Each structure stands twice: as structure tokens, then as C-alpha cells.
Description:
Residues 1-24 form the signal peptide. By secondary structure, the protein is mainly beta.
Amino acid sequence: MTVKPLHLLTAVASLFLTTSISTADHPGRKSLADKHGPAGIAGDHVHEKGEWMVEYKYMNMYMEDNRIGDRTVSDSEAIAFGATSSPMTNRMAAPTQMTMEMHMTHVMYGATDNVTLYTMLMLPSLTMDHIRGPMNPAGAGTEFTTHNSGFGDTALGALLRLYSTQRCDWILNLGGTVPTGDIFRTSSTPTAGMMSQALPYPMRLGSGTFNARPGMTVRYFADDWSWGGQVQSDLPMGKNYRDYRLGAEVRLNTWTQYLVCDAFALSLRGEHVWRDNIDGADPQTPDAGISTNVESFRGGYWYNLGIGGQLNWKGNYLNMEIVPTLAQDLDGIQLETDYSIIASWSRAF
Ligand SMILES: [Cu+2]
């Protein structure tokens, strides 16, 4: 069977016609269950003048096993790799598992219809399991856990609604973080009390620098589904007092939300994450000790899939997502990300 060009043209034309009919004014379309993007997204919506929103968000990222590039390796292989890697590493210990938990309090306020101000307080809780390496005075092959929690960096900024119709929004995020999170704590746990060492980079609560976080979001609302796209960056500026800055990060997200009914939506999201290595070096993070001390073993690429749902019930907005990492290519050797769960409750008034 052949498809005649004219038939194809008619099909495309009718599709456009359907779309243009459904793009008639629908006041309140942006107040249904897909009014916010999936739980892992922020900066995707604005509030009208005088409206406040408070949100509590919880995130937990699970990481288990080391990965060299895109290949998962055993704990003993991780130790062996460090003997000949450049730089040499994992002589004192190798990480085996980590949970990165985060509690977030997010407040938004509509200063005008086109400018929404926001701030977000972050409370990370980091736990990392390790296996001791051949040079550890406490004995190779034994295990230990380190933990760190407290205030993280604080995000604040403005969301500017650049262009908007009843069906779409273009939102520019002009924001950043201030270095309220501690970046230098010591622990003698790795050597079973024999010596005190600085916690490595991924166990620190903040970046130590002022970070610019420009971003851009576009959203489109059809009758019973919506679509969103977002580019969001995290750009540390200068160096912190420990003489380094974290690598720049860029996230590219696209998502679709389907309205099961006005109060409930299902979402599917794809996320690309690119992160640079650390610039500079804290003088108290010897590379040979552990791979989490190595500045050039922090960057990489990750592809995450977000599967979620949103419930808009009596003014309470519940947003949840489970986010498996489907692909990752890591610089050097690092813990691999398995999945994250993200959940939030918010209310506007
Ligand atoms: Cu909001």
C-alpha cells in the first residue's frame, strides 16, 4: 500500500486543525494536577501576584557499587584499579555504597504576575559505606561507615515569566545558591580512630562557593496532557576557602504529564545530566587515600528516567517520582547511581 502525498497532507492539516481548536482559551487549565512539573523539577511554574507557596520536598539517591567509565566493578576490583590508576587511589579505602538524602523547604512568592521569588533551604544527610584498602592501618578488607548532615547551601532567585498564553509558559530562572553548607569536617572513623582526616568531597554538605543557577523552562498545556522542557545549570563561581570549586553541572529535562482526571496526573520524564570535574584541590584530600578525594574523578554523564504522579487534592499538592538511572558514563572510578526517589507536598495560598 502506498501513502499518497495528498493523504499525508490532509492528515497533517487535520492534526493542526485539532490542535488549534483545542488551543482555544481555557481559563484555569494551568491549575489542574499537572500545574507543576514532575517532583524532580523546580522552577517550572510561577505564581500570580500576592500568592505564596510553601513546599516540603524529600529526595533520596541510592548509589551502590563502583563504576569505571560505564562498567560496574566489584569492591576488590575497585581497590585493585586504584593501584595503577592515574592518580593512584583507594589505598586507604574504597567507597562501596552511599545514600544521599535531602530535606528541602521551598517558599515561592508572586511579587508580580510575571516575577516569582523563591528560596529553598536544604538539609542533606549523607551516609557512605566503605571497605578498607591495603594501606589502611586499621586492616584491609574491613568495613566502616561515615555520616554527615546539617544545613546545605541555600538557593534563592527569581522566576521571570517571559511569555505566556492560556496554553503555554516560557520561564527564565535567574537564581543561585549561597554557601551556607559546611565543607570541612574531619573524621577518624576511616582508620578506626588512629588518625583524623577531612571528609571527602561527596560527603560535604555544601559547595563552599556562590553558584549561579540560570535556567529556562517551557511548558505547553493541551486538553488532557501537558509537556515541559527545561535546561537548568549549576555554575560554581570563584574558589571556596578550601581552594577548590565543584564542577559545573547542566541538566536537560523533557517530560509529559497525562491528566487521568483534573485532580490526578501521571508523568514521564527524561533527564540528561552533565557534570564537570572539580577545579583546584583541597590540600587535605590526598588522592591516594580514596577515590572520593580525587578531583578528576567527579565528572560524568547520567541519563535518568522519572516515573511519577501528581495529586491536587483540596489545595494540597502531592508530587512523587521514582527515578532510575538508565545510563551513566563516569570519569575515573566513582560510585554508580542506581535510583532516586523524590516526593513533595506543597500548598499555595
Ligand atoms: Cu510554586
